Amino acid sequence: MTLIKSISGIRGTIGGVVGENLTPVDAVKYAAAYGTFLKVKNLGIKTGKLKVVVGRDARISGPMIHNLVVNTLVGLGIDVVDLGLSTTPTVEIAVPMEKADGGIILTASHNPKQWNALKLLNEKGEFLNGHEGELILEIADKEAFDFSEVDDLGEIFENSAYMDIHIDEVLALPLVDAALVKTKKYKVVVDGVNSSGGIIIPNLLEQMGVEVVKLYCEPTGDFPHNPEPLKEHLGDICKLVLEEKADFGIVVDPDVDRLAFISNDGEMFGEEYTLVAISDYVLSKTPGNTVSNMSSSRALRDITEKHGGTYQASAVGEVNVVELMKKTNAIIGGEGNGGIIYPESHYGRDSMVGVALFLTYLANQDKSVAEIRASYPQYYMSKNKIELTPQIDVDHVLAALTEKYKSENLTTIDGVKIDFPTEWVHLRKSNTEPIIRIYTEGPTQAEADNLAERFVKELKEIAGI
């Protein structure tokens, strides 16, 4: 069992030993560290109580962790706007709407049900930067908490309206045309992996005039399959799209910030191509620049250049993508794992925005979803990982590879990425799991797979495993 402390938040498995897992004690400790960080940050700047927005996904441990976190903030004298069952992007948009000082999303995203996490936001509803994350970890290590006296405790304000508000905000986006979509009478299958996406995605679709076929849309937190939206986990929806003769299928992860489509032929549209297709539509209407992370497909670069824009790649991590998007005034960006970041809405990955833009794009095309997918540059990715052990010196391994391939086109801002003429490999230590991730891309699946196998072998040789 594992507890991972990083600048992006605190993630761990439920149960077990304090300090080694996400136990109730750890949930309180890191919620207190975050609340203390906000109090220090606002000292002498803001009078009166601070305010934090809190929401959770539907995973089984959610209510327990939620109660611990909310009441820890109350104990620090911080008011809480409690969204209850919600999504990551919904909490993100709620923070500035509530004029709050921060937000916490209780979700382990795509991780299995034994995991949960505290994902931490600033007053803009955006993820904390590296420096802020380090400060919170320092506060937690010192346990430098000063709780409020009884007359100064915070209050809890429950607000269950924000998923509906989120839908309204998405439908109001200038490039979303619900009226046009309604004329097409689409039929769509939705896999909500028994979390909050099973509520909010069908509601959005129905308001856009789409007939919805629900699959795993009860928010029980009992995930019916591995919640990471990869092909090997999605056999049920691929089959159901064909059986229902649906126009396409939609898959989200438990906190609804990753988005994958199933084409009308029952095949994966490809997580990497979620961002590509939506960017193609957005750039056709509002030309500009794009950003994705280093582990994302070259296809976004090709589409951006087709529309006269400039593409740049950031280090992996949503906060890094957002930072580079702001620097380059990117119109749209995100991550190749199906994360869409559309600044016209907010600087956070948002499947709701992605669904609405994709439906509008589809309604403007005289093509099926499978035909749209076939129209894009064809790249194939292989995503692999190696489990870490305490004996492995990851920095040494990556440094050795850097030296070996120093004559190639190398990028080392986040692990090691080697750009070969027709393919690339990216090797990095995960921020959220004890593994080395190995991403490759090539013009065929076989070439991507072969490149991955080659580097898995080289990594193991250098590491001595």
Describe the protein.
This protein is α/β, with parallel strands linked by helices and 465 residues long. Helix content is 38%, strand content 22%. The protein has helices spanning 24-41, 62-75, 88-97, 130-142, 162-171, 178-184, 197-207, 235-243, 271-285, 299-306, 318-328, 351-363, 369-374, 394-404, 445-463; strands at 3-6, 9-13, 51-56, 79-85, 102-106, 115-121, 156-158, 187-191, 211-215, 248-252, 259-262, 289-293, 311-314, 330-335, 339-341, 380-387, 409-411, 416-419, 424-429, 435-442. The strands form four sheets. Strands 1-2-6-5-3-4-7 form a seven-stranded mixed sheet, sandwiched between helices. Strand 18 (416-419) and strand 19 form a beta hairpin. Helix 1 packs parallel to helix 2 and helix 14 (394-404) packs across helix 15 (445-463). The relative contact order is 0.10.
CATH superfamily of the largest domain: Alpha-D-Glucose-1,6-Bisphosphate, subunit A, domain 3
- Helix residue percentage: 25-40%
Radius of gyration: 22 Å
The name CATH uses for the topology of the largest domain is Alpha-D-Glucose-1,6-Bisphosphate, Chain A, domain 3
In what range is the share of β-strand residues? Answer: 15-25%
CATH architectural name of the largest domain:
3-Layer(aba) Sandwich
| Major sheet characteristics | 7 strands, mixed
Could you give the count of β-strands? Answer: 20
CATH class annotation of the largest domain:
Alpha Beta
Number of helices: 15
Class by SSE composition: alpha/beta
Please report the distance between the alpha carbons of the first and last residues.
22 Å
Spatial ordering of strands, largest sheet: 1-2-6-5-3-4-7
Uncertain segments are none
Count of spatially separate domains: 3
Shape: globular
State mean pLDDT (0 to 100 scale): 94
Cofactor: Mg(2+)
EC number: 5.4.2.10
Domain Alpha-D-phosphohexomutase alpha/beta/alpha: 8-145, 176-266, 273-379
GO molecular function: phosphoglucosamine mutase activity
